[in-house]
Amino acid sequence: MVPITWYLVLSAILFTIGVAAFIFKRNIITIFMSIELMLNAVNLSFVAFANMWKDLSGHIFVFFVMVVAAAEAAVGLAIIIAVFRTRQTLNVDRVNLLKL
Amino acid sequence: MTITPEMKGILIWVLIMVIKILVITHVLLGACAYTVWLERKLIGRMQNRWGPTRVGWFGLLQPAADAIKFIVKEDLLPPGVNKPLFLLAPLLAVALGLTSLAVIPFGETVTIAGHTEALQISGITDPNGGGAAPIFDPNVGLLIILGVTSIGVYAIALSGWSSNSKYSLLGSLRASAQMISYELALGLSLVGVVMLGSSLSLRAIVDGQAAPAGATGLSQWGVLHWNFFGGFQFVAFFIYLTAAFAETNRIPFDLPEAETELVAGYHTEYSAMKFAMFFIAEYANMFTAASIATLLFLGGWHSPFEGLSFIPSIPFPPIIAAFVPTFWFVLKICFFIFFYIWVRGTLPRFRYDQLMGFGWKFLLPLSIANIIVTSAIMAWRAAP
Amino acid sequence: MVHQLLFIIFAGICVAGALNLLLQKHPISSALSLIVVMGSLALLYLLLGAQFVAAIQVIVYAGAIMVLFVFVIMLLNAGEEEHTKGSRIAMWFGVPSVAALFGMVLFILLQRSKIDYQIQLGAFGRPTKDVAILLFRDYLLPFEVTSVLILVAIMGAVVLARRQP
User: N or C: which end of chain B has fewer CB within 10 A?
Assistant: First the structure.
């Protein structure tokens, strides 16, 4: 049998790798993807606890997290496209002046 | 190492599963090859010419000749391609085309040597066997097929991008945009059927289309309980069929792979076996779409003569009788394949902006309207 | 036994995919690794008895959101990563902070919380139906609010990505 702690530790590992990718990577799309990784790690915790308490509210939370992640990804990528059109670069270190 | 009875049971289960997978996969691959032959013959006759006639009687060995050609052709790797993705894309396309077979039920059960087995790769009968065992199939079988369709977009997107060619990139972007647009109408048109069947499991939806036990008079005829007729899902049926044509990139929605437009779209740079893999994937997707239409709208494996007492039922031996529902299922799928080929020979192609406008501005609101009307009628019928 | 073996295999694939996202230079490889992570997470949800969540994870997350990411990477033709001065400073401060974060989370999980529960396969009878009942009865207001949120997101994305005339 698998104790629930294994799932929670896996969720912690994925979340930490997401934070690391957020800090270390310079391409803005990769930074965005690390946010999605962090959200997925949290989803795993929710589903594991839903199994523990036999309460389906955990699944409902996962559903809403997915919806919010989808909305955020759509708007965020639109902003990235707009930034790329003006600055011609996707490296966050080069987008450091308010005026071109 | 002694083999306990428990291990023996597991080994037998694995062996039966492998046999089922091999049989169903090989039947599908053979069907794909001969659908190509059927298409060339039918399109030829519609265009008042013969089609393949040279290789064997009626050109029946043409698929074998094509297979040999694909195997011995030179496998080109154009310069500048992204090698891992170039190799991954056709593999992904074929793998996903064949994965949907795992949840499609082909019939009820077959009993060989005292062991009852469900005619579905992911269907599990009562392990103790015997009698009318209930069949357990995935709770969310329909969502699995929709998931496989969603991942299929990657095969096309990656093939175009990795090919390092303008025609391929344009073709793959158009094809991916078309596929994700029509996926919405496809999924929403199936919600009406799911509401009528109260379940996402394919077997439960088909079981809901049989004539109920206490029916009298005309409603004994099984056909009237199919979702297309008795469930009044004809609008959903036509939305589903149109969306399925768009998902499988068939005429009238095949702009991304039309020869006069984009050379060959996302599979321009592929040769020999990889191109054959895309071909097989396209026909396997056609079979999946036809199977779903049959299961959800036309009553699956139920015979159209079910419940008619004046048609004599032929007493088959039990082995053959277990496959009679499969025969009706395959017959209905063949009708859909014929319909696919018929439409290819008849209709012209959509332009790309017409295609996208049709998907977003017409099919999507129509499928939502279908959901509203179906749920209103169900609520009205259930009201005390 | 089989449960533990399946968990270890899919958890290994998850962690390998996440590390690949961190270590790869080209964003398309990171995107494909993230899709692998999401696929194996869907399989872990199946082990936890959440069939509906597993199916919508594949359909929505891996099949729609990541397609959006892959499209944008293909359209913008994003090149490989380059290491600037900012990223070197980030590594000097980042590695200890990430290690500290991980250590803190593990300490709280393993030492302080003491949760003692074994995962049961097949914990839920009819998850789809029960989730639907909860969603449309107890959580109806958040459901309607999220539909407004999606509408706002669609309008925002269309306006922001439009080509200025």
Answer: C
Quick check: A45 and A11 in contact, CB under 8 A? yes
B131 domain-assigned: no
Does any domain span residue C34? yes
State phi, psi for A18 to the nearest 5 degrees.
-65, -45
Give a yes or no: residue B133 inside a domain: no
Asked if C74 and C136 sit in the same domain, the reply is no
Q: Is the pLDDT of residue C84 over 70?
A: no
DSSP C15-46: HHHHHHHHH-SSHHHHHHHHHHHHHHHHHHHH
Q: How many residues does chain C have?
A: 165
Residue C2 belongs to some domain of the structure: yes
Q: Are residues B156 and B35 in the same domain?
A: no
**Low pLDDT (below 70) residues in chain B:** 1, 114, 126-133, 214-215, 217, 258-264
Q: Evaluate if residue C147 carries a pLDDT over 90.
A: yes
Residue A19 CA to residue B232 CA, distance in Å, equals: 52
CA distance linking residue C65 with residue B183, whole number of Å: 14
**Tens digits of per-residue pLDDT, A4-29?**
889 999 999 999 999 999 988 888 99
B276 is in which domain, residue-wise? 73-107+138-382
- pLDDT confidence of residue B299: 85
- CA-CA distance, B305 to B313, in Å (whole number)? 9
Question: What pLDDT is recorded for position B58?
Answer: 82
pLDDT for B114:
67
Q: Does C136 touch chain B (CB under 8 A)?
A: no
* N-term to C-term CA, chain A: 59
- Expressed in angstroms, the distance from the first to the final Cα of chain B is 65
Q: Which of C76, C82, C124 sits opposite A91 (nearest CB)?
A: C82
**What's residue A33's pLDDT?**
94
Closest approach of C161 to chain A, Cα-based (Å): 5
Helix axes of B272-297 and B5-46: crossing angle, nearest 10 degrees: 100
pTM, rounded to two decimals: 0.90
Helix axes B234-247, B272-297, angle to 10 degrees: 170
- The pLDDT of residue A48: 92
Nearest-Cα distance to chain B for C52, in Å, is 7
Domain A4-94: give its CATH code: 1.10.287.3510
User: Domain range spanning residue C155?
Assistant: 124-165
The answer on B79 and B63 residing in a single domain is no
Neighbours of B147 (CB within 10 A): 25
Q: How far is B220 from chain C (nearest CA, A)?
A: 30
B touches which chains (3+ CB pairs under 8 A)?
C
Decide if A26 and C115 are in contact by the 8 Å CB cutoff: no
Q: Are B64 and B146 contained in the same domain? A: no
Structural domains in chain B (count): 2
Nearest to A74 by CA among C154, C31, B151, C143: C154
Contact assessment for residue B230 and residue B222, using Cβ atoms and an 8 Å cutoff: no
In a domain, B25, yes or no: yes
Q: Count of domains in chain C?
A: 2
